[in-house]
Amino acid sequence: MLRAQWYFDTLLKVFGDVILPTCGSTHVQFILFYLTSLSDIFVREFLDFLWSKFVDVNTPTILRVTCMMYMASYVARGKFISLRLAQECISLLVQWTQG
Length: 99
What we know:
Elements: H1 2-19, H2 29-36, H3 40-55, H4 61-77, H5 83-97
Helix pairs in contact: 1-2, 3-4
């Protein structure tokens, strides 16, 4: 699992530094999506990464919007994401919208 964690951490950094700010990326991110499907820990870490970027007011608005788009798409399409985790994500978003 240590090797998988290293790959995940490396790909998450690449995702944040390269893929996230790239307009029109259509396939590359699915490598990370696949890797996260292998572990519930990776799923949670990826969603936490996206959420923390989204709520950080120092993150440029376009990247915050992109994070939410990835998060919504990931939760909606990931068959490996539990109903409970999907509900937690929606609850976080609702709480955020209410201030």
